[in-house]
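Researcher: Going back to the complex we discussed earlier. I've cleaned up the inputs and rechecked each line, so this should be the final set. Can you rerun the prediction on the complete assembly and write out the structure?
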Amino acid sequence: MRDIHNIVILTGAGLSAESGIATFRGPGGLWEGHRVEDVCTPQALARNPELVHRFYDARRAKLAEVEPNAAHLALARLDTEWPGELLIVTQNVDDLHERAGAERLIHMHGELKSALCAQCGDRRPWEGSLPPESLCAACGAAALRPDIVFFGEMPYRMEAIERALARADLFVSIGTSGAVYPAAGFVQTARYCGARTLELNLEPSEGSFLFGESRMGPAGELVPTWVDEVLAARLV
Ligand code: NAD
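Model: Rerun complete. Updated structure for the full complex:
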């Protein structure tokens, strides 16, 4: 088995659950009481922009009430202290990884605190509510939308993610149900390229059988323990 130098970590909504942000596919498959078809698709945005903007305004406002938990802090510590290559790929649209101090980070599904102009593609940081009539600072169009990757849209930075997966010695998936592609397929890519694979999750996910090792429990407990192990081994 090869030494660990390159680590890729995929995180999902379960990582932020202990901070008080609801996960997605809880009972009933709703996200904060909404069907995903009503708030997370380009069709929903075209049909009812007020509802979609209000939904993401509420998610953005919620960020002021939450803090990074022990799992975010442990991953930020790993990012700072790990001397080899490391990439955290998050499906989360909250800002808790960066508030914990993580820097080697890709938000593959976008960010609540960013606005995207559907007209010209300009993207810039956004605080507070984002009414549908807001004007783009670059082109002047009333075409700003939450900078979120909706179902049916292409996730961000896929080339960089694929490159990192191809080089990974260790792939770790944390707090994700393994139901949303392409992220759910990362474990197969990493395995195919020779990486060890580890899942940390509250309960077995749909793709648990694909991992070489699975540990079950709350991320706030599992992640700090795992980070301590990796840093103690320093297998670079
Ligand atoms: P998901 O909600 O589908 O699955 C969450 C997973 O986390 C489940 O497997 C669950 O068992 C596990 N989990 C719950 N509590 C946990 C804990 N305390 N510790 C460890 N694991 C725990 O989430 P997903 O797979 O990330 O997919 C959901 C999609 O919804 C993503 O694309 C994301 O963009 C969006 N989303 C984001 C947020 C956020 O930004 N925090 C929240 C909800 C949904």
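Model: Worth noting: The longest helix spans residues 219-233.
Researcher: Good, that matches what I expected from the previous run.
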